[in-house]
Amino acid sequence: MAIQKNHVVELHYKLQEENAEGELVESTFESEPLKFIFGIGQMIPAFEENLEEKSEGDDFSFSIVAEDAYGLYDERAVANIPVGDFAVDGEVKPESIELGRQVGLQDQQGNTYQGIITEVGDENVRVDFNHPMAGVDLFFTGKILTIREATPSELDHGHVHE
Ligand SMILES: [Zn+2]
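Above: the input record for the complex with zinc ion. Below: its predicted structure, written as tokens.
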């Protein structure tokens, strides 16, 4: 059976930054394999394009440029926020403006954005709302374990059942 839309694919993968020598981001090889329904938007489209028509037991190795993965790094997604905006009950606690701290910001439509504090000045705090993997090319290697057709209820729910 070759991978097609609406198949449940089980695979092991290793993700590295840029290429085979790049920093390891994650690997399923020492834990549970990844299971997903192919072709319904659960995965990055470029990830699926590289796996289409593969069969059980096949190894794979491919890269995805940043543009087709988590996007290019966007300078406009970096905000300078006045220190005073971090006040709770009129007081800015040092731990709430710590470097590397994750902060959430809500826009007027109620969408929440997660950012990381990358610089702390006297008046402003710099928060980077880019995805941590923005601007990074992805390099995947792995092996297809099993392929089967999704059941009607799996397709209905949009996820894999055990
Ligand atoms: Zn379900």
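Notes for the reader.
The first strand starts at residue 7 and ends at 17.
The chain has two domains: 7-67+134-157, 75-128.
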